[in-house]
């Protein structure tokens, strides 16, 4: 299942990129969305790519049919790899995995300059390899992701206003 979420920010791509890749900001944003036990590591690779690894526990409220697969608190690991981060447009990829869950969430991340600042575009690809209920679980993941992204967006807009 694929879907895209776009966040418009009133700051240039360089400013937003610096925020999105800042460890302090990332921890505060994740805490604001209910995450616990957060670990963040940011490093630059020899090829210039900026890599962010994160691990955290995230609360969930799965419906009855999914409670054996999705717990109330899930350990999530993720990696963002910003491959092109030197120019005005910045692009990368991400991967997320939930410990013990049969599926993955991956996609592309893009910072595009606009006349009023920039757009942060996140293209998601949800894959759940369970016969019969896989599509229902993928839809739950999409719904949870949209809810969390709304929280992320509100937090980041406020954070950027204080710069």
What does this structure look like?
By secondary structure, the chain is an alpha+beta fold. The protein has a seven-stranded antiparallel sheet with strand order 1-7-6-5-4-3-2, with helices on one face. Helices cover about 30% and strands about 45% of the residues. The chain is globular. It contains three helices and seven strands, in the order E-H-H-E-E-E-E-E-E-H. It has helices spanning about 15-20, 25-30, 135-160, and strands at about 1-10, 35-45, 50-60, 75-85, 90-100, 105-115, 115-130. The protein has one domain: START domain (Alpha-D-Glucose-1,6-Bisphosphate, Chain A, domain 4, 2-Layer Sandwich).
Lay out the secondary structure.
Layout: E1 2-9, H1 13-20, H2 23-32, E2 36-44, E3 50-59, E4 73-84, E5 90-98, E6 103-114, E7 117-128, H3 134-161
Antiparallel strand pairs: 1-7, 2-3, 3-4, 4-5, 5-6, 6-7
Key terms:
alpha+beta, seven-stranded antiparallel sheet
Q: State which percent range the strand residues make up.
A: 35-45%
Written as H for each helix and E for each strand, in order along the chain, the element string is EHHEEEEEEH
Number of domains: 1
CATH superfamily: START domain
Estimated structural class: alpha+beta
CATH topology call: Alpha-D-Glucose-1,6-Bisphosphate, Chain A, domain 4
Shape: globular
Q: Which CATH class? A: Alpha Beta
Got a strand count?
Answer: 7
Tell me, rounded to a whole number, the average pLDDT. 93
How do the strands line up in the largest sheet?
A: 1-7-6-5-4-3-2
User: Which CATH architecture?
Assistant: 2-Layer Sandwich
N→C terminal distance: 36 Å
